[in-house]
Amino acid sequence: MAIKKESFMQGVVTIMFSQILIKVLGLIYTLYLTNREGFGDAGNAIYASGYQIYALLLTISSIGVPNAISKLVSERLAIGDNRGANRIFKVALATFGVIGAVGTMLLFFGAHTLAYDLIQIPEAELTLVALSPAIFFVSISSVMRGYFNGRRTLKTTARAQTLEQVFKTVLTILIVEIVAHVTSTSTEMMAAGANVATTLATFSSFAYLFMYYRLRRKEIGREIEQTVNYKYENVKTIIKKILMVSIPLTLSSIMTSFNKNIDSFTVKRILSTYMASDVATKLYGQLSGKVDTLTNLPLAINIAFATALVPAISAARAKNDKETATKRTSFSLLTSMLIGLPCVVGMIIFAQPILNLLYPNANEGALLLQIISVSVIFSILDQTINGALQGFGKVMIPAIALGIGVLIKLILNLVLLPIPALNVYGAAIGSVACQGIAFIIVFNVLKRYVKLDLPFRKFVLKPVLATGIMGVCSYTLFLILDGINLGNKATIISILFAVIIYILSVIVLKIYNKEDILMLPKGEKIYKILQKLKIY
User: Fold this and answer.
1) N or C: more exposed end of the chain, with fewer CB within 10 A?
2) What is the CA radius of gyration of the chain?
3) At what angle do helices 396-416 and 425-449 cross, to 10 degrees?
4) Is 45 in the same domain as 177?
5) In a 10 Å sphere around its CB, with 0-12 CB exposed, 13-18 middle and 19+ buried, how is residue 320 labelled?
6) How many whole angstroms separate alpha carbon 178 and alpha carbon 119?
7) pLDDT for residue 353
8) In a 3-state reduction of DSSP, which class is residue 112?
9) Are both 377 and 310 inside the same structural domain?
10) Do 208 and 106 share a domain, yes or no?
């Protein structure tokens, strides 16, 4: 029995639900850490500063790999070359296993220098050491995820990532509690313990993917026997092809990591010149801990489109099917807009209530959240466009666009952070500018290659109107409920009400046309229901 391949929207929904669960679990352990006595914003600063360095090395060793392997494998499979697809996988596994091992050693032996000289948070040394083995496991897992994505079995990678986050959440809480008990609540040791949990979790994901591959080897072997259009390529040629695709994708991810590391290198260093060091550390902790966690939630939901678009468009291009590529790109961009706008408005109007609800013991940072939330809409659209451009083979464009944005952010950080009246908010303004500039560049490039079916009324005007209706109605309800002293219940009820109002607004305004609705899972049933209700 052949391995079942998923449709485009099945893949999107699979990844979307997986990412929602992953981010909810991530939020749970972030809430636990931030509200844990002895951790708080100071612990977040140590944890995040070490993690951002790890993320940079991880990016260099593996982040561009899943989409690169996915693209190359899907192109081979689209023309029946199963043997060629499997050969790409095996060569990539060996190559990135070596690169991952080098990354692990660099982080392990360079932890002291990085913590003391580069980020100037000495307590981060142990967190870097604890994270170093994870680079090797993630590098190998990235190749396996790319292979399964290219085969359109996205459920496999979604399960692996979900399993990793489950382990990370459970182990973070267990290990931090044990460390806190043994060390009399040492913030430094608790931060290191939290990152030990990350390393163990990455191993669990690798183990799952490895076992899944072993269970499917016979089925994959039978597919290889049915190969047509096989074209032999030596190892050197395959590595060159993988690197030609993965390096530009990795550059884009490196730019994202640089974006975060700019704050690691500049915020505390500059703020400490005119305020107490512990205050500067806590402000950086607010930025890197609470605010980044909340603004990354919408991106996690939307990443499904970016991930599914790469193999879908690559396969369509291999078969010269321009219509499918255009439809899927237009639909994905519209849906990304519909995801992003309400998230931005929701975080702006409910910033303080959300922080009160989630971080009762450390609820500072509302204005930071409001400013940075503006970048979410640009980041979400940018994410989807990058997936489309990668599928179309324009892999350098996202890296160049984000590189320009990162340069602007660095300049703004250096100019704005030294102004006492702005302090940490200067970094937030830089983040918005970075994402906005990157979006403008990639969107204009995409329009040259795809004739998008997104008129202004459909893509901008109606989504903005639906979001406005949601914002006014939900905030009015919040003021009423808050006036009768319902506390956090007022926030929860108002947010749930906002979701319902927004969905109804999208339906009533007919933002999705018939063809869009039919692309949704159970699209035919949904359309029939809307017809009965005389909405369509």
Assistant:
1) N
2) 23
3) 160
4) yes
5) exposed
6) 28
7) 94
8) helix
9) yes
10) yes
- Residue 229 covered by a domain: no
Please report, as a single letter, which amino acid is at residue 203.
F
Q: How far is CA 458 from CA 319, 331, 338, 508, 511, in A?
A: 30, 11, 11, 13, 6
Residue 347 is predicted with a pLDDT of 94
In a shared domain, residues 532 and 411:
no
Q: Give the pTM.
A: 0.72
Q: How far apart are CA 461 and CA 161, in angstroms?
A: 36
Q: Which of 408, 427, 454 is the last residue of a domain?
A: 454
8 Å CB contact between 431 and 259:
yes
292-318 vs 322-349: helix crossing angle, rounded to 10: 170
- Do the domain assignments include residue 3? no
369 and 276 housed in the same domain: yes
The residue from 418, 433, 454 where one domain ends is: 454
Local structure of residue 36 (DSSP, 8 states): S
Nearest alpha carbon to residue 280 among 45, 40, 43, 113: 45
3-state secondary structure 38-65: CCHHHHHHHHHHHHHHHHHHHHHHHHCH
Does a structural domain hold residue 209?
yes
Nearest to 405 by CA among 255, 517, 241: 255
Say whether both 148 and 208 belong to one domain: yes
What distance in Å separates the CA atoms of residue 151 and residue 311, rounded to the nearest whole number? 8
Gap between the Cα atoms of 136 and 199, Å rounded: 10
Q: Which domain holds residue 470?
A: 455-536
Please give the pLDDT value at position 188. 79
Answer yes or no: do 253 and 346 share one domain.
Answer: yes
Region label for 487, one of left (φ > 0), alpha (ψ between -120 and 50) or beta (otherwise): left
Residue 1 lies in a domain: no
Domain count, the chain: 2
Token pair recorded at residue 424 = 């940490």
Please indicate, yes or no, whether residues 37 and 148 belong to a single structural domain of this protein: yes
Local mean pLDDT, 10-residue blocks, the chain (536 residues): 55 72 77 78 73 68 71 83 87 88 88 78 81 89 87 82 88 88 82 86 92 87 80 83 76 73 85 88 81 81 70 71 79 89 94 89 87 93 85 82 92 94 92 94 88 86 96 95 88 94 93 82 80 81
Q: Which residues of 493-526 are buried (b: 16+ CB within 10 A; e: fewer)?
A: ebbebbeebbeebbbeeebbeeebbebbeebeeb
